Amino acid sequence: MQAYLSTTTPPHSPDVALQPEHDVDLPPTPPSAQSQSQKQRGRKRVARNRQKVYQALYESNAKLEKALRKAQKYRQRYNRLMEKKRQADSPNTKSKRQMVTAPSTLRRTLVFHNAMISELRDKYKNLQSDRDKQIISKIMAGKVLKKYRLLKMAEREFGFSPRRMRSNEKRTTALTYTRKKQKNSISPATEEKIKQFLERDENSRASTGKKDTVTKKKTKRQKRFLNEPLEKLHKKFRKEYPDIRISNSEFCKRRPFWIVKPTVKDRDTCLCKTHANLQSMADKLLYHKVIKSSNIEDLIVSLCCSPKYTKQCMYRECTVCEAKELEISTFDPGTQTFWYEWKGKAEERLKKKKDGSEEKFTVHLTVKEKVMGTFHTLLEDFSMGLKEKLGKHVYNIRHQYAALRGLKENLSEDEVVLHIDFAENFLCKYSSEIQAVHFGDSHKQASLHTGVAYTKNSVISVCSISSSFRHDPCAIWAHLSKVLTFLKDQYPTLSVLHVVSDGPTTQYRSKKNFYFFTNIPYQMGWKKLTWNFLEAGHGKGPADGIGAAVKRRADDIIARGKDIPNARVLFEELQQQKSATELFYVEPEEIESMDILVPSELQTIRGTMKIHQIISASPSQMSWRILSCFCSATHDCKCFNPETVMFQHWDKPSPSTSTSHPDTPQIGLLHIVDLNEGLIGQWCAVKYDGDIYPGIIQDTDVYSGALVKTMSSAGLNRFFWPLRDDIIWYQTRNIIGLIPEPVPVTKRHKEINVSVWKEICETLN
Fold first, then answer.
1. Which region ranges are annotated with the description Disordered (predicted)?
2. d(Cα 70, Cα 79) in Å, to the nearest integer?
3. Most buried among 138, 250, 638, 744, by the most CB within 10 A?
4. Rounded CA gap, 480 and 486, in Å?
């Protein structure tokens, strides 16, 4: 039995209660994919339902806010409507209520009083513009109401605001509109300083066109064009006036209406050659990212140890500045590039005569040429131009403007400043013309020499007219003689004359003009003289605007039906017009009579191109400086190392050490005393690496020397023109002198005159 039970009974089950539900060594069983997807769907449903609730809540709040605004709008509209419907008591009713037992005369007075108040209140209430409201409120802001302490009552009865009543007490009693003054508005003195600053010749240039005018509020002015952006001028103004705090936007807002930004049609056709050429190089270097800025004046300042434009730094006389170089990025110096330069050149042309023969003549041209070179050449030329030319050039510009501005501001009773210039010739016209008049030389021209004279208490505009087209020193002094005589007649106390002009070497900056200047004024009673030249290419001034005004007045005369066929009629017609410009007429014979006063030979002043001031205190004597200086009342200070020159006496002209007369044919070597524009087109001999080469002078520069187009050598005193022009700048020390034109020895080769060649060789040895 026991054996049977042991075989048929199953084994005992394990004790489940004593074992853990999961083995600690086994990971939990992951949920199935079906349960995971159900969970995600559930969470999305919850988020969607929550979003619907939020959206519904947002829409409900928006509707509620809209309804509240709408209710408020209609509530205010209702209140306004009820206010309009509520009729105020009439003046008569109000008077009856106030004076039940008063006599009839007093009642009548009260009716008038209440009627006036009602009328003014209604007028004031219906006005829209602040200008009209201010004028009406000024009626009630008088001394009488204030005396009897009725201002508050007037404010309440008429509906004036307390602020308006307080403002009217401070304003003028005149019934005119007074514009509100902003708290941060600038003073009239500051506004006047901004106007004077922008009108300076270094910041804006006067327009010369007769149509370059602008009118505002019936005030017509000649335009002036800004030389620089207003942002840069604002920085310059803040630097000059550090005590004046003014933003760039406010500075631009205070710009006078006649000082405008130039457009393409207003482009400057009298650009400075030095600035234009260096700017072209800077633009090319900036385009290729060799330099960081194309502002050439900022670049020249970066080469100086001081940003204050000192003479030592700008003239490269400072030992610290000599070692400074431009900041440049890395570049390949051998890469080819190109840039443009303005160059002067002499060109030979042929002119056919009536007999069929041809005659050679030389013309002087200024052209914009494309220059090829490497980045190394471009950067080297640009760096040299900044250091050798632009530094001195910019300093001279700023110094001359500042010195002459100080002179005008501190004139004494016996001084006058005369700023002169030749204007563009006026083309004479008829009021109506046939077609044939437009061809040939039917239209005559008139030459205009304009000027502005500044005394201590007045400004006088002058213009002399002539049919002669000569602009040489003889013509200049035929024009000036009439102007100086007029000034002495009008202002007998004047004895010191300061002349200001640009510096063309064929006109004002020439030895003939110096000779006349040191003699003619003394015969008129002047005792002390100075002539001040503005820097080359920067001679624009107020005299240019006088020419435009005169030509505009002449065009008005023609438009009204009168003919102006020549210069004499132009002068006569203008004299009949009411004008602030004093007019003079110069006969051609008066100009020709000045020719006989010039000696056959005059002393040439070495360094004429560098002269910026001439001082004379006695006849036939003058001193000159490289820059103007007025630190001494007698103008005899030693600033800028003045040099003295003596001319032959006016009454007894005698030969002096000088170059030959221009009409005398050149037969030998002629040493150049001074480089000037009159040498352009002449033959010269230059020295290069010890060899001699003949060439034609193309251009001159006070700093660079002479630009010469030279021939190539084919042996001893044998030269030919190369296929590619050889044109470079030569310093004065490498220019041997002027020579006659080489004579041909073959079809291609030429030689210098044998005697001249020997003289050149002796000079070099």
1. 1-48, 82-101, 164-219
2. 14
3. 138
4. 10
255/363: higher pLDDT: 255
Closest Cα to residue 401, out of 190, 203, 636, 242? 203
Distance from C-alpha of 756 to C-alpha of 760, rounded to nearest angstrom = 6
CA distance 706 to 701: 6
What's the one-letter identity of residue 85? K
Q: Sign (positive/negative) of CA torsion 592, 596, 601, 603?
A: negative
307-311, 588-592, 691-695, 697-701: least confident range: 307-311
Highest mean pLDDT among 73-77, 218-222, 342-346: 73-77
Task: Tell me which DSSP letter residue 608 carries.
Answer: G
How many other C-beta atoms lie within 10 A of the C-beta of residue 533?
A: 23
Q: Is the pLDDT of residue 44 over 90?
A: no
Among residues 513, 473, 502, the alpha carbon closest in space to that of 616 is found at: 513
Residue 754, helix vs strand vs coil: helix
**Closest by alpha carbon to 455, among 514, 401, 497, 395?**
497
Q: Collapsing DSSP states into helix, strand and coil, what is residue 628?
A: coil
Of 308, 534, 503, the C-alpha closest to 405 is 534
The tokens describing 561, both together, are 């039906």
Could you tell me if 327 and 302 are in contact, meaning their C-beta atoms sit under 8 angstroms apart?
yes
Tokens of 404: 């002459």
Query: Is the Cβ–Cβ distance between 630 and 407 less than 8 Å?
Result: yes
Q: What is the C-alpha separation between 738 and 763, in angstroms, rounded?
A: 13
Question: What does the angle CA 78 – CA 80 – CA 85 come to, to the nearest 5 degrees?
Answer: 95
Residues of the chain with CATH 2.30.30: 677-764
What is the tens place of the pLDDT at every residue in 320-330? 888 888 888 88
The rounded distance, in Å, linking the Cα atoms of 442 and 38 is 106
- Does domain 677-764 fall under CATH 2.30.30? My reply is yes
Q: What is the mean pLDDT of the chain?
A: 83
398: helix, strand or coil: helix
Tokens of 285: 């270097």
Place of tokens 């007093």: 106
Angstrom distance (rounded) from CA 669 to CA 740: 8
Q: Give the separation between CA 503 and CA 608, rounded to whole angstroms.
A: 10
pTM of the model: 0.64
Cα–Cα distance for residue pair 221/241, rounded to 1 Å: 27
Maximum Cα interatomic distance, the chain, rounded to a whole number of Å? 178
The predicted-structure confidence for 104-126, as pLDDT tens digits, reads as follows: 777 787 788 888 888 878 877 77
